[in-house]
Amino acid sequence: EAVMMLYDLKELGIRFRSLDSPVEGDAPENIIFEALFTAMPEVENARRALAVTRGMRQAQLEGRYLHRAPVGYKNIRTGEGKKGTVKSIVPNDDAPHVVHAFRLFLSGMGQSEVLQHLRKRRFKGDKNKIARMLRNPVYAGYVVARPVGDTPAQLVHGQHEALISKEEFDRVQQMLAGKQQRRENTWHDHPDFPLR
Q1: Residue 87: beta bridge partners?
Q2: Which of 112, 114, 156, 164 has its CA 20 to 30 A from that of 47?
Q3: Neighbours of 135 (CB within 10 A)
């Protein structure tokens, strides 16, 4: 792509010049140097992106939560890291709402009912927020280390405080999976809709 751009510029009468390259004149061999000097910054950017991605995965494997805090937590910075401050999460004023949502769902309430109960307690959110909350392993004290290259995603014990137990989280996941399976079965086997 860079070589094609150089040809287009040359047709317009514009010559490529680099302050730090020895390319001079119109020799055909200079095409190699021009392509090399235009590709090197692209390679360097790709190398930096890979290093950042690997660094983030390593931090996640250490149990650090690196993103914007989910409902029930807030982001903080501590002075414990090798390079200065380390990003972490701690429970905030919404943490009791999260715990209550999990307990209500475990008692047999649906997500809409859970949302109605939480709104009575001045919780701000919608059904999608409840659905994401119930599926997020962060609340059980875990962090998802994202996949990098051929390395798959991994669930790691986090450095943050859990709001619910792993057992409660696992039961909620089983309940959600059971409801999803029932919904799929009724969807496909409905006699009024044979073409679905």
Answers
A1: 77
A2: 156
A3: 12
What string of H, E and C letters represents the secondary structure of the chain?
Answer: CHHHHHHHHHHCCCCCCCCCCCCCCCCCCHHHHHHHHHHHHHHHHHHHHHHHHHHHHHHHHCCCCCCCCCCCEEEEEEEEECCEEEEEEEECCCHHHHHHHHHHHHCCCCHHHHHHHHHHCCCCCCHHHHHHHHHCHHHHCEEEECCECCECCEEEECCCCCCCCHHHHHHHHHHHHHHHHHHHHHHHCCCCCCCC
Q: What is the pTM of this model?
A: 0.70
Cβ–Cβ contacts within 10 Å for residue 131, how many? 14
Cβ-based neighbour number of residue 129 at 10 Å: 17
For 53-99, the pLDDT digits (tens) are 999 999 999 999 999 999 999 998 876 655 656 678 999 999 999 99
How many angstroms separate the CA atoms of 114 and 130, rounded? 8
- Give the span between the Cα atoms of 57 and 40, in whole angstroms: 26
Cα separation, 53 vs 46, in Å, equals 11
Those residues with Cβ within 8 angstroms of residue 53's Cβ, 6 or more apart along the chain or in another chain: 148
CA angle 84, 89, 92 (to 5 degrees): 135
